[in-house]
Amino acid sequence: FEEIAVEEQDVSYPILEQAVYIQSLKQANETAALKALDNMIQEIEPLKSFVITQCLCFDIINITIRTLDQMKGFQLKDVDLKRICAFNSLQDFRDKASELVSAICIQFSEFRDHKSTELKTGILNYVNSHFMESGMGLDAVADEFGISANYLSRFFKQETGCTFMQYITMIRMDRAKELLVNSNMQIKDVVAEVGYIDVANFVRKFKNYEGMTPGQYREMRKEL
């Protein structure tokens, strides 16, 4: 400790670079993460003490491990974290740290894609099975999957190309048209069957969707 205190005064790198590094790993942005790593290492290069150099390199390793712990559900595979600790020069550390960063970003990107696909499938299956319930809405589905309504809204639009309510309306109207054509159910019963409570509201939505009332649609289809 005396050696460290005497040899060097400024033995840190910018906190901003740490923040960029951490955020880049969490976003699986390999290019940005490698750039931030390189910037931190450049701050270490001028130091004359190998002891201090080691300490700062281990700090980068520690930051990396802490960030991995914050990536909920993600497990880094086929990477020996102990190997990166066995460096004998700054260049050796740079090479091993860069390999680690690339592995994290590649694997985490694949992990996120898989989780997104899994979430999308789960949401669509749930909505397709419960759309006829009058209480079906953004908040109900968000609660079911333990996510916020705002996140669900953004995620749904991103994954399907339409808003949540546009999708609900589409599948409800498709089911309503099927019932109008293939059954003798009264309009009010069709309305209840597809998840609406207010008949007038349903008729208005149906007309906007098909350009005609449910009764007119039924008659038109019968004539075909």
Overall description:
It is a single chain. The protein starts with a helix and ends with a helix. It has helices at residues 2-7, 15-26, 30-44, 50-70, 81-85, 90-130, 138-145, 149-160, 164-182, 187-193, 199-210, 214-223. The chain is mainly α. Helix 3 runs antiparallel to helix 4, helix 3 (30-44) runs antiparallel to helix 6 (90-130) and helix 9 packs across helix 12. Helices cover 75% and strands 0% of the residues. The relative contact order is 0.07. The model is unreliable at 4-9 (pLDDT under 50).
Provide tags for this entry.
75% helix, 224 residues, 12 helices
Topology:
Elements lengths: L1 H6 L7 H12 L3 H15 L5 H21 L10 H5 L4 H41 L7 H8 L3 H12 L3 H19 L4 H7 L5 H12 L3 H10 L1
Question: How many extended strands?
Answer: 0
The dominant shape is rod-shaped
Question: Termini, distance in Å?
Answer: 91 Å
Query: How much helical structure, as a percent, in the residues?
Result: over 70%
Oligomer: single chain
